[in-house]
Fold these 2 entries.
Entry 1:
Amino acid sequence: MNLVVMWKTNKDFRIIVLLLMMAAIFYFLSLMIGDKSTQCREAGGTWLKKYRECENIGLKECFNIGGIYNFCASPCRHYREESIADVCVFKCTEVCEFIRLSK
């Protein structure tokens, strides 16, 4: 309740809170951007440079290196649609994904 009142009445409080939120956003973005290949291999995963993904690591390891965890990604997610039926059998692959700024 007091925080709501401070938010409504105190301009300095709003500025401080917004600056802290921006700092947190930049911190998490910095974790997701950059070279993660070494960290992926150290966590026991397989680094896919083209897709900025680390395969076969768990949730804890993915979180520690700043990725977005996908517990059931398709092993065929990077194939073209025409060849999927020929090559793929559905099973889950654990993937730790990172921000790609370009394709």
Note: Residues 11-32 form the longest helix (22 residues).
Entry 2:
Amino acid sequence: MGTTKQAAKRDRQSKVFRAKNRAIKTRIKNITKEFESETAIEKRSEILKKAFSILDKASKKNVIHHRTAARKKSVLSRQLNAAQPEDKIEPGELGESQET
């Protein structure tokens, strides 16, 4: 407890802010774990949209740094793209000439 009124108020405020920040950070961790544990690509893309929203809101409220949010979003996107099968394009499909 602070010795002045101002210090006492800051102490009360910091307890409230800490609780809110911890809840948001926990939500980020939970959505990340949910994304990584999901195997279906369609479901993963839905979870990714939610994760982007949560990260953007946390960044906007200064719970996490905006570059930290961008980095986490990038990692999740790369994981989603790595899980998707790559389409093989055969020569000639895009109007290219096949020279033999």
Note: Residues 5-82 form a domain with the Methane Monooxygenase Hydroxylase; Chain G, domain 1 fold (CATH 1.20.58.110).
